[in-house]
Amino acid sequence: MKIGFIGLGNMGAPMAANLVQAGHEVVGFDLAAPCPAGVTKAATAGEAATGAEVVITMLPNGAILRAVAAEVIPAMVPGAVLCDCSTVDVESARAVAEQAAKAGLGALDAPVSGGVGGATAGTLTFMVGGTAEAFATVEPLFAIMGQKAVHCGAPGAGQAAKICNNMILGVTMIATCEAFALADKLGLDRAKMFDVVSTSSGYSWTMNAYCPAPGVGPKSPADNGYKPGFAAELMLKDLRLSQQAAEAVDADTPMGQQAAALYARFVEEEGGKGMDFSAMLPRFENRSRE
Ligand code: NAD
Q1: Known catalytic residue: 162?
Q2: ipTM of this model?
Q3: Do 148 and 166 have their domain in common?
């Protein structure tokens, strides 16, 4: 397949490399990042999209996606599919899908879970919104870049699934970290805490798979000085997207709102920028009750 790939950063580069590895012809464009080996470099996003059957975007946010889509859509051949894998707001995803449909193109919002490790290993999970026809076209590529692709529904459904998942992630990370900090102050050994909670009703992905306490549980960014992993500012971005969406549809999400406020303080005032999102634990460790 001929594929255009726009946005070759931490996630996009390994995803594009996996498509090349599987024998696809990939033409890439990024404003700053270099093309990975085997990807042909285009001079513009439009050039990368010209003649492609599928154009994949992996960009920082919705505003950039809208700008890139405005350039790419007129360059695409009718029947081709624009597949955005970035995490963006639901409105941007729906607006881009509408523009693509008007131009006779398929469109998918297909954000991912699994991080840079999953992108490199080809084990991402894709949550996908768009038509069944567009999903069927891109499904073989999802199978190369990931281990699972769920067709969640109409345009925007993929982004909806992503921000709901990550709202749970932010909330449970905070809950796990504050529980460890409380356990410390109660004199409970962290390894015992892990042993109990990871096999009791408080278990979660943040406790069992990504434990925020160094030296406890499986290896995680906590064992590497809280180097990301999944950076606190990316968690904040996703929590803000969840609150933007909650406001738009008048959903009551008090825990998501609290989590967004706490990560905003952590990132913007308390030195959390550039650290893994599990560094909430040393933050709580050093604090007194407010
Ligand atoms: P990144 O900043 O490493 O990569 C984004 C790339 O887009 C950069 O290389 C940048 O130069 C390029 N870019 C920006 N504007 C552009 C434009 N107009 N035209 C072409 N290229 C442009 O970010 P990332 O970590 O690769 O994340 C990409 C997306 O994936 C984000 O939406 C993020 O929320 C999401 N995501 C990231 C992770 C993760 O762990 N890093 C996990 C899941 C989802």
Answers
A1: yes
A2: 0.99
A3: no
| Chain segment 202-230, per-residue pLDDT in tens | 999 999 999 999 999 999 999 999 999 89
Per-residue burial over 142-172, b if 16 or more Cβ lie within 10 Å, else e, is beebbeebebbeebbbbbbbbbbbbbbbbbb
Q: What number of other Cβ atoms are within 10 A of residue 187's Cβ?
A: 6
Task: Please pick, among 41, 102, 148, 162, the residue that the annotation labels catalytic.
Answer: 162
Angle at 81 between CA 79 and CA 87, to 5 degrees: 160
Mean pLDDT computed over 104-132:
96
pLDDT tens per residue, range 261-288: 999 999 999 999 999 999 999 999 989 9
Residue owning the nearest CA to atom 25 of ligand 1: 10
Ligand 1 centroid, distance to 186 Cα (angstroms): 42
- List residues near ligand 1 (CB under 6 A): 6-12, 29-33, 45, 58-60, 64, 67-68, 86-87, 112, 115-116, 230, 234
**What φ, ψ does residue 152 adopt, rounded to 5°?**
-85, -20
State yes or no: pLDDT of 66 exceeds 90. Answer: yes
Query: Model's pTM, two decimal places?
Result: 0.94
Ligand 1 centroid to Cα of residue 147, in Å, is 21
- Number of domains observed in the structure of the chain: 2
CATH number of the domain encompassing residue 276:
1.10.1040.10
